[in-house]
Amino acid sequence: NKPEWYLTQVLMWIGNHSKFLDDKIQPILDKAGSSVNAGLEFSRALVMLILEKLAADIPCLLYDDALFCHLVDEVLLFERELYSVHGYLSSLPSCMHILSEESCFQRWLTVEKKFALQKMDSMLSSEAAWISQYKDITDVDEMKVPDCAETFMTLLLVITDRYKNLPTASRKLQFLGLQKELVDDFRIRLTQVMKEETRASLGFRYCAILNAVNYIATVLADWADNV
């Protein structure tokens, strides 16, 4: 239940040994005419230990939503730091390969959808759902975006950020399929609320729904260039 313990330990080992590997070991390899990068090879070997650990742990966690989600969150944080801080290469083995394996990946999709739908329930039942966060700042709030629409698009963006480093396009497309389902689900929810408001088509909530639709369509159009 604490994968961050071993993930953080590995990051510490990589960070603590980098100077020694660069200053002492790399010159020996260079002198011998080797193409091996000492730091990357050290990181790769430690990541292989993590892959073994994950392969053993994940089957035990698959049906505990809280523990499984926590594991995925911690692995994604680990991956982000491994690449951004320690210069790890995408061509080397990574934890995303484990998360891409069929049973694990399908479970990830399932819990991602479950928690996204829960988030949508809470955002639409919130008292501030149809109020703009920036209603008092004219130059920021040209589109009069209600809070629920902004929160929903942030949810989609967070999901993209979580899956964007998956190693294969087919897996990414499955996540895109989930996002399309969520957009359609949100559309249905907006339609249901709108039907309740048809008697007051110039009312506050009806206008907020139109603003939400306009905002979502605009943002999706902006995202169209993002492969």
UniProtKB/TrEMBL annotation:
What biological processes does GO assign it?
endoplasmic reticulum to Golgi vesicle-mediated transport; regulation of ER to Golgi vesicle-mediated transport; retrograde vesicle-mediated transport, Golgi to endoplasmic reticulum
Pfam families noted in UniProt: RINT1_TIP1 (PF04437)
Which cellular component, as a GO term, is one annotated location?
Answer: Dsl1/NZR complex
- Coiled-coil regions listed: none
Show the PANTHER family listed in the entry: RAD50-INTERACTING PROTEIN 1 (PTHR13520:SF0), RAD50-INTERACTING PROTEIN 1 RINT-1 (PTHR13520)
| UniProt name for this protein | RINT1 protein
Q: Which organism is it from?
A: Notiomystis cincta
Instruction: Tell me the lineage of the source organism.
Output: Eukaryota, Metazoa, Chordata, Craniata, Vertebrata
